[in-house]
């Protein structure tokens, strides 16, 4: 067992919570001890939902273990049904409660409730959050969806968006608009904002759109087999993928693909002279498999970046990411340990990271700009504004999100380079306000550089103060590589103290 400060995925019952919280008229009764009851924090603080998650806990304590914990669960079920009047309930155990083997599903089935009871068997010590969401939606669909007559007009179901998903709310809106332009209606979105009654209507659609394979693929495969509904394989994130997606829908429906690209900004900029600053930027990608695969295509084919590394944390999508990495000529990183991710980023020294909130923190420590492309994310990635990842507007949002850290990072570097200039030093006020010194040279004479060698030791090599100051003038996106190259150069030659001369000798050596 390994203690971790951060984790990319929670246990599988958190995935089931994401499905339950996304739906209406469904309640989740979770057999869990006191301490596993953190759903309110997840959904009301991070996602800023306007209602509490529909989860009831048994919250047994240590002293209850010697008594009848099964009775506690049954009482919690009765209370939840009486208080919330759901159309259906799902029942399961948290990772801790799984150890006492009370079998919530079996107990609930013997209670004689007059609504559907859907048991979840989620192996907490073998699988994780995305599996829990995928399995929960699959069990709900398998229990409630039945073959029914198709709708008169061509319709589809949007499958996979959940609570705590990365821009799922806005992706639904964007995809609905794209499909309507083709003449395809949306029958049901599941699980997001669906009720159990809506799940029962899934069979009326002509096909399914699998938006997020990590949370909806099992349900789509079941509906393809049992309800005769094919499902899309292309995830429409990026310009090229959106066009491919609409062609795929056209093949399924016999309709002509329609796409209004007048709102699209990315292709024009990518073909402009201004974009040459971005060409060849070395990027590292990490997140869930779906978003990493989409981002890799955008980075290489639509933005002109160089993908130097990629990986995912959800092992269910590891095979896809390994095949993708082979196509890009890089080694895939499949891990849920953020320290391994940080070590790979340090070794590759990319100019930009495309990742999760974990990589955003890693980027801060390493001085590398990072754009978030995947869950897990924090509150700033649940914006109040419309900000999808899919479709035409999604491509515009992605372009802004990726380009801004690079451009603003360049601005920060230039300001730092000219910090000693009479206009930019810290004591100079705004020129139009006649600031301190009226924009003249600093009022105080800068303190002479101190010998900080004692505090700058890295391994067996020591950086002198003047060399450390000069290193800060190197652009932030290659500074780490410059430091490592210089230290390697010094170590090979038995130099124990790095001076400015050593720094420039190393630069000349590696430039050959």
Mean pLDDT: 85
Beta-strand share of residues:
5-15%
Main beta sheet, described? 5 strands, parallel
Q: Judging from the principal axes of the Cα atoms, what is the shape?
A: globular
Number of helices: 18
Could you characterize what this model shows?
The protein is α/β, with parallel strands linked by helices and 512 residues long. The protein has 4 domains: 12-127, 3-Layer(aba) Sandwich (Rossmann fold), CATH 3.40.50.1980; 145-261, Rossmann fold (3-Layer(aba) Sandwich), CATH 3.40.50; 266-414, Rossmann fold; 448-510, Proto-chlorophyllide reductase 57 kD subunit B (Helicase, Ruva Protein, domain 3). The chain is 43% helix and 12% strand. It has 18 helices and 15 strands. The strands form 4 sheets. A 5-stranded parallel beta sheet has the order 10-9-8-11-12, sandwiched between helices. Strand 8, helix 11 (289-302) and strand 9 form a beta-alpha-beta unit. Helix 1 (12-22) packs across helix 5 (129-144), helix 6 crosses helix 15 and helix 17 packs across helix 18. The radius of gyration is 27 Å and the shape is globular. The model is unreliable at 434-458 (pLDDT under 50).
Write the layout of secondary structure elements.
Blueprint: H1 12-22, E1 26-31, H2 39-46, E2 55-57, H3 69-84, E3 88-93, H4 104-109, E4 117-119, H5 129-144, E5 155-159, H6 168-182, E6 185-190, H7 196-200, E7 207-210, H8 213-226, H9 239-253, H10 266-270, E8 282-287, H11 289-302, E9 306-312, H12 318-328, E10 332-334, H13 338-348, E11 352-355, H14 357-366, E12 370-372, H15 391-417, E13 457-458, E14 461-463, H16 465-471, H17 476-492, E15 497-498, H18 500-510
Parallel strand pairs: 1-2, 1-3, 3-4, 5-6, 5-7, 8-9, 8-11, 9-10, 11-12, 14-15
Antiparallel strand pairs: 13-14
